[in-house]
Design goal:
The chain is α/β, with parallel strands linked by helices and 152 residues long. The chain has one domain: YqgF/RNase H-like domain (Nucleotidyltransferase, domain 5, 2-Layer Sandwich). It contains four helices and six strands; from the N terminus they run E-E-E-H-E-H-E-H-H-E. The protein has a six-stranded mixed beta sheet, sandwiched between helices. Helix 2 links the parallel strand 4 and strand 5. The N and C termini lie far apart (30 Å).
Length: 152
């Protein structure tokens, strides 16, 4: 397993969740939630640049059949805009049901969905990150797909 921090992003039309790993990739934790909008790319880029990361994972929202949706195109576009600023590799990670799982975790910890929306987005990013790291640890391969495999 390569050493270095990784960041995962759960892109959404309203909010963008961000999570970060420890340098040794043993711990993943929510980092921030950024409001979507015209400043979102620069705000997320600033978070990434402050952390000296080796790789960024952006959740790829697919429908349950694995097909692209409008949200998929939006997440890919966000990833391309982000890459033009940060310069490090971005990999797209299948994120099906990550937000649902994060909502379940919040509910299990006694928080309701309405009062913890911003926490859910960062928690979903953390789940994306944990999945990507687990994949790399078990297979030795890079998780997801390189952003270069998609059209801008």
């Amino acid at each position: 397993m390569r050493m270095g921090r990784r960041i995962a992003i759960d892109y959404g039309a309203a909010r963008i969740g961000v999570a970060m790993s420890s340098v040794d990739a043993l711990i993943s934790s929510p980092l921030a939630t950024v409001q979507a909008g015209e400043k979102a790319v620069s705000e997320v880029a600033m978070l990434i640049q402050e952390q000296d990361v080796i790789e960024v994972f952006v959740g790829l929202p697919l429908n349950l059949q694995g097909e692209h949706t409008k949200s998929t195109a939006d997440a890919i576009q966000f990833a391309f805009e982000l890459q033009s600023i940060i310069g490090c590799e971005i990999r797209m990670i299948d994120e099906r049901l990550s937000t649902r799982a994060a909502q379940g975790q919040m509910f299990a910890s006694g928080k309701n969905t309405k009062s913890s929306r911003s926490l859910i987005d960062a928690a979903a990013a953390s789940l994306i990150l944990e999945g990507a790291i687990a994949f790399e640890k078990t297979t030795g391969n890079a998780p997801g797909k390189s952003l270069s495999e998609f059209d801008a």
